[in-house]
Prior knowledge:
The structure is a single chain. Helix content is 33%, strand content 24%. With 278 residues, it is α/β, with parallel strands linked by helices. β2 and β3 (26-34) form a beta hairpin.
Amino acid sequence: MREIGANKCFGGRQLRYSHASAVLGCEMTFSIFLPPQVEQGKVPLVYWLSGLTCTDENFVTKAGAQRYAAELGLAIVAPDTSPRGEGVPDDPEGAYDFGLGAGFYVNATQQPWARHFRMYDYIVDELPALIEREFPVDGSRVGISGHSMGGHGALTIALKNPGRFRSVTAFSPICSPLNCPWGEKALGNYLGPDRASWREYDTTVLVASADAPLPVLVDQGTADNFLEEQLKTPLLEQACRDADYPMTIRMQEGYDHSYFFIATFIGDHLAFHAGCLY
């Protein structure tokens, strides 16, 4: 692990590292904010999963999360959104919604993607082991959050690992990859044509079989230009009603898909996590 960035921020430290990932077969980067409370001992942490085209830096520079995290005593880990580097395949047509920057937080089973695109294992196993070994964080008090593709990742990973995460929030999540063009392209390529294998990465499917509900907060802007075609929030609302799953889904009037939306409500989300982790 090699430090590649360090800044003091709201009394804490905003750090950036690179490391060799055995799971992904490439060099990866992640950012971590350590609040000032680490001087007294280990703190809870929240993983932030970003969306299409993003790296580990978008959230760090645009969301304004550090001020709230410093006040609440939360560490925030922001990983990259896909494997990268020489030999890592990209979308053959260079599109933004697949390949580099679009790992979708799944374990690919199809070639040529299966060698590198194992973001699910990276987020669930490899990265947490590294973070808990190297930083003053409490691995028993962990939340997860994300935006768009990362919101999909946060929800599905939390629902599949309820003992690992105490809280989950999402902004503008892709709620049902089974039923939108982004999901059909990504899961069709990463997992193959058998749609039954896609179901383990679809939030609307997972809530129906959840054993014990987690505390979940979802914010979705009504002016989001991806809402109808790609995000499918009504399908998640219906799935929660059918499963009697107590998920808080807030439709925020006039907000779009941007980081302006995230910056507006990130304080609410981090307070939600702190309320579950402290």
